[in-house]
Amino acid sequence: xxxxxxxxxxxxxxxxxxxxxxxxxxxxxxxxxxxxxxxxxxxxxxxxxxxxxxxxxxxxxxxxxxxxxxxxxxxxxxxxxxxxxxxxxxxxxxxxxxxxxxxxxxxxxxxxxxxxxxxxxxxxxxxxxxxxxxxxxxx
Length: 139
What we know:
Elements: H1 31-54, H2 66-75, H3 83-87, H4 91-97
């Protein structure tokens, strides 16, 4: 991508209409400026077309959603959701970042407040529980 093109060469870097009554001249647009504009536009188009091509989309002047479609195709995989997390070996970190895991690799959520057991007995988990993480501490 090209660097930012220079502004038009006027004292305030803006274009101005002339005023024939006062003799004020309008901004003269020279070839350098127009070439900069053309180069910047073509460069931006090339960058965007590269994104479309990477998503397998051919440029279609009648559509106004091609970039969004390409970004969704490239960034939001629906055929293998979160597959990149698994292939990167970062499942544990991702679960911790989402608040779905702890430092021991346990995945789940707290369904009830912690219980303090004071005698022997049977623990009956809630119907939503599939697993239980039990920590025992001596009194």
